[in-house]
Amino acid sequence: MRVAVLSSGGKDSAAAWWWAICKGWSIECLVTVTITDDDSPMFQIPSTHLVEQQAKLAGLPWVEVETSGVPPVDIQNLEAAMKGLSIDGFVSGALASDYQKSRLERMAERLGLRSWTPLWHQSGHEHVKGMIDHGFEIMLTGVSAEGLNEEWLGRILTHSSFEKLADLAASHRFHVEGEGGEYETLVVGGPHLNGRLSVTGTVHWDGVRGYYEIH
């Protein structure tokens, strides 16, 4: 099976990528949607340019799709880029968003491709914990939830820090896996990569939310 991986560089797309590897499928390329405006209801914004470096570590082609992020243009731009790929389908890290999954599935139907969402409706806690168990290095690059402050930015999750994150999620009532946009991530190392990314950056914090600008 020849597949593309829709990758933001974060934990969910990394887990989906690894799932495809474990299936023995041929990963033809990584496809990243880069948002040129300030917001998107569909795609991650922070640190997505670093997927290019992940692709280099894995020896894979990287396809960047620039879009404003405004529906329906965002999916139209992605669809136009996918038309030129020699693939049987694509894999994405959709976990709980019906909006995201349904839009991708409709795009797949129009293109005559298969869409796989291997993480769909997994337990958020078990999903992230399992990734840490298997050696994924998950760095937080953006936070926007009560209970998460600037100390989390640029931090790589460990078993102990994830349990602290889970406690905060329970007490402040946010999604422990960040599915509601409470935080964004970058995977700097893991079993899907040949090596790891070494990154430095600057914390930007406005008192409510913030992001980690990677140099």
Describe the structure.
- The protein has about 220 residues and is an alpha/beta fold.
- It has two domains: about 1-115, HUPs (Rossmann fold, 3-Layer(aba) Sandwich); about 125-215, putative n-type atp pyrophosphatase, domain 2, CATH 3.90.1490.10.
- The protein has six helices and nine strands; from the N terminus they run βαβαβαβαβαβαβββ.
- The chain has helices at about 10-20, 50-60, 75-80, 100-110, 125-135, 160-170; strands at about 1-5, 25-35, 60-65, 90, 115, 135-145, 185-190, 200-205, 210-215.
- The strands form two sheets. A five-stranded parallel sheet has the order 3-2-1-4-5.
- β1, α1 and β2 (about 25-35) form a beta-alpha-beta unit.
- The radius of gyration is 16 Å and the shape is globular.
- The model has no long low-confidence stretch (mean pLDDT about 95).
Structure summarized in a few sentences:
This protein has six helices and nine strands, in the order E-H-E-H-E-H-E-H-E-H-E-H-E-E-E. The strands form two sheets. It has a five-stranded parallel beta sheet with strand order 3-2-1-4-5. Strands 7-6-9-8 form a four-stranded antiparallel beta sheet, with no helix packed on it. Helix content is 32%, strand content 24%.
